[in-house]
Design brief:
This protein is mostly helical. The chain is built from nine helices and three strands; from the N terminus they run βαααββαααααα. The chain has one domain: Alpha Horseshoe (Serine Threonine Protein Phosphatase 5, Tetratricopeptide repeat).
């Protein structure tokens, strides 16, 4: 999981672009830029997940209004740190696409952390975990399939690794369904079918891990620091 760095969204080039392109007073947008920066949090709770989603939406609007991708006139440095590394290692790109990819990744990571922290000892807790495991899987699927994040130098954006994450998260969600069926005293047939589906899901995770080059990385102690499951 990445640890957030502060994007320099008060870059003079952005302010100059507002003045020249939109012919407006840049100082009018100081509070708006500050608000966008403050949306970027690093705690694993529902409030943070919501803030990250608002931040992502604001970044998309900025991307549509300002030329901030790699090679564009406005160069804003976005810097993120990898928490799983023994030595603090930053990745920095002057590309708003990198910031969008990192934020999307962290949306998934935050939802996964919320789900893992559920005790799952009550019906409500099981439902909450089930919901957040699914919420965690979708951002990683989107990151893998739609955002071309693998072009950035981070193993976390590797498509094979993201696929493994998605499978594990959906497996955990399926496990919540199985637990709920036991609490509800569902029929043996229903419980058995859910258990078989869960077994197949985890076997798929294992096959994917064994058929890729991810085994050493995922099992490393450094990596366990980064992801809760």
């Amino acid at each position: 999981m990445f640890c957030v760095g502060t994007p320099v969204l008060d870059n003079p080039l952005i302010l100059q672009y507002i003045l020249l392109h939109f012919q407006d007073d840049p100082s009018k947008y100081d509070n708006a830029l500050t608000e966008i920066i403050n949306l970027n949090h690093s705690f694993a709770d529902v409030e943070t997940a919501c803030a990250l989603k608002r931040y992502y939406a604001q970044l998309l609007m900025m991307k549509n209004r300002f030329p901030m991708e790699e090679g564009d006139p406005i160069k804003v440095l976005f810097c993120w740190y990898d928490r799983a590394m023994d030595i603090a290692h930053s990745a920095t790109y002057d590309d708003i696409g990198f910031e969008l990819a990192c934020v999307m990744y962290n949306i998934g990571a935050v939802h996964a952390s919320i789900a893992v922290n559920e005790a799952r000892e009550s019906e409500d807790s099981i439902k909450n975990a089930f919901m957040h495991y699914q919420y965690a899987a979708w951002p990683l699927q989107y990151l893998r399939d739609k955002m071309n994040a693998s072009k950035y130098a981070s193993v976390d954006f590797d498509k094979e690794l993201l696929t493994f994450f998605v499978n594990v998260l959906l497996g955990q969600a399926q496990e919540c369904l199985l637990e709920k069926s036991l609490i509800d005293h569902r029929s043996n047939l229903v419980v058995a079918r859910l258990a078989i589906h869960l077994r197949d899901r985890y076997q798929e995770c294992l096959r994917h891990l064994e058929n890729s080059n991810l085994c050493d990385y995922v099992s490393s102690q450094k990596y366990k620091v980064g992801w809760p499951f």
